[in-house]
Design brief:
- The chain has helices at about 15-20, 30-55, 130-140, 145-175, 180-205, 210-225, 230-240, 245-275, 290-310, 320-340, 350-380, 410-415, 420-440, 445-475, and strands at about 70-75, 80, 85, 90-95, 115.
- The chain is mainly alpha-helical.
- The chain folds into 2 domains: about 15-55 and about 145-405, Cytochrome Bc1 Complex, Chain C (Up-down Bundle), CATH 1.20.810.10; about 70-125, no CATH class.
- The longest helix has about 30 residues, at about 245-275.
- The model is unreliable at about 1-10 (pLDDT under 50).
- The structure holds protoporphyrin IX containing FE (HEM).
- Protoporphyrin IX containing FE binds near residues 154, 205 and 206.
């Protein structure tokens, strides 16, 4: 086994040359591919997010047409084509109000195929916000490839969280909180928090029922669960006591500026440690068993992908039973291909190893990009009932219902069983425990204590799986 601590002598004047000379193990364990996928998906999120920013308007105020005419919400009643786009019954579209402001001035194709949507309590027409119209109408229907970009962003978020959880789970499995990996561990923990915060703030941006509920539930958790600072923290997130337009602007600023900057910084730090590959280990593989684990896993994932649509009713591509095999299959295929083409990755030869590693990662990224694009084209992203726009001047806010993403089901289930303050106290204690592990579990600690810590981490992992499965059964996937 190579000694990775023996890097080349470092002079401050040659950091770039040093970067390429550094001893880097070339490795291609399955876990190592997931580390690379975190980088890949972050790039996808950055690119697709930036493209949507050309159209996105972070405003909860009712929107108007460019000439100042207010827009109303209409529901399609008969299949029709308008401005080259086909609309199906039940879909929602913004239409101009007439001069009275209460009725719609329907364009000819919609005249007998749509009706104005009114709030059930007030009977007044619903005015969609600028944010909702910019995403659900402009990006999804009026922009070329807009629906694809939005779907890539939304499905990419799911796969990014999955890759990160698998990556961090693998770090935990290897006990990677100990030296010399403690920096990878701590930055990985920070990455999970930042990515979850990104997913949460992102889900608020379309400003629909789901986004509004996510803003309420997410911002009220610190209020209910953290003494003293919880309330001011919640109000800072919302921009006041209530969830309103201020909350949307703050979430948008956090999602599109603050969190991406923080993520880039943490990723640079995390990746430069991970690049040394100390965690995944320079194990190479046994050439006599080239198809072992990856082949079995790939076959299992392929089988699940084929049978899941038949056994699930209704078929939900956002289910973890579909998304996880969809992610694992191309990763296993990449590992098998790389091993067939490039053999074992065992060399520890600085820049050679880096380029070999990069090549192996690129194969994986290409296959995963294929899976992501197929998913985005075959199942364009939709928020279902939760996609109904929010009009802050009306009463339809009461109809809001939150259906958590699969990776939040565990915490959701905890909230079902105990009060928000107990659930938050538990969550914060787990975070504190995980972040203090590098300090508590030093090489000098007694072997007995180290074993106990390891078992506690495994127990937490099992608890997460158990709660997630339970939550999954409760909400029906
Ligand atoms: C780790 C990084 C990111 C994650 C996990 C993430 C996640 C999300 C999620 C879950 C949504 C809601 C999707 C939906 O249901 O419609 C969203 C929306 C959005 N995100 Fe991101 N995002 C990330 C980075 C970015 C970046 C870097 C930008 C731009 C600079 C961006 C811009 C947007 C915009 C404009 C929306 C609203 C459109 C929509 O709802 O699809 N995101 N994001």
């Amino acid at each position: 086994m190579a000694d990775f601590s023996q890097s080349q002598p470092q002079t401050q004047s040659q950091p770039i040359r040093q970067f390429f000379r550094e001893l880097v193990p070339a490795t291609d364990t399955l876990l190592w591919y997931f580390g690379g996928l975190v980088l890949f998906f972050f790039g996808v999120m950055l690119l697709s997010g930036l493209l949507m920013l050309f159209h996105y308007q972070p405003s909860a105020a009712p929107t108007t047409a460019p000439d100042g005419t207010p827009l109303l919400l209409a529901r399609i009643t008969d299949t029709t084509t308008w401005l080259g786009v086909e609309y199906l019954p039940g879909q929602l579209v913004p239409v101009r109000a007439d001069s009275s402001g209460g009725n719609a001035d329907f364009p000819t194709p919609l005249r007998s195929a749509a009706e104005v949507v009114c709030d059930s309590a007030t009977g007044r027409p619903v005015h969609p916000s600028a944010a909702w119209v910019s995403i659900e109408h402009v990006v999804m229907r009026q922009t070329e490839f807009g629906s694809l970009v939005r779907s890539v962003h939304a499905w990419g978020a799911q796969l990014l969280v999955a890759s990160l959880l698998i990556w961090f789970g693998g770090l935990a499995w290897q006990g990677a909180w100990r030296k010399p990996n403690s920096a990878v561990w701590s930055s990985g923990l920070l990455l999970i928090l930042l990515v979850l915060a990104s997913a949460w703030t992102g889900s608020v941006l379309p400003w629909d029922r789901l986004g509004y509920a996510a803003a309420w539930v997410g911002s009220s958790l610190p209020e209910q669960g953290i003494p003293v600072v919880g309330e001011p923290l919640a109000q800072a997130m919302r921009g006041g006591k209530e969830v309103g337009g201020g909350a949307l602007t703050r979430m948008a600023a956090a999602h599109t500026a603050l969190l991406p900057i923080a993520l880039v910084l943490v990723l640079i730090f995390h990746a430069s440690w991970w690049r040394r590959g100390v965690v995944s280990g320079n194990r190479g593989y046994d050439p006599s068993k080239p198809f072992s684990a990856a082949a079995v896993l790939a076959a299992g994932c392929g089988l699940l992908l084929v049978i899941y649509p038949f056994i699930a009713s209704p078929f939900n591509p956002a289910s973890p039973f579909f998304l996880l095999p969809l992610l694992l299959l191309p990763v296993c295929a990449a590992q098998l291909l790389n091993r067939l083409a490039g053999g074992a990755a065992v060399s520890v030869t600085s820049s050679q190893a880096s380029s070999d590693g990069l090549y192996r990662q690129l194969v994986c990224w290409l296959l995963v990009a294929g899976a992501l694009l197929t998913l985005a084209i075959a199942a364009p992203w939709t928020r279902g009932e939760g996609g109904f726009p929010i009009d802050l001047t009306q009463s339809q806010l009461a109809a809001t219902q939150l259906r958590p993403e699969w990776y939040l089901l565990g915490f959701y289930q905890l909230l079902e069983w105990c009060s928000a303050s107990v659930a938050m106290a538990f969550l914060l204690s787990v975070l504190l425990f995980l972040s203090l592990l590098p300090l508590a579990d030093r090489p000098a600690s007694a072997a007995k204590g180290r074993g106990a810590i390891r078992w506690m981490v495994y127990a937490l992992f099992l608890l997460f799986l158990f709660l997630t499965l339970w939550g999954y059964m409760e909400v029906g996937g």
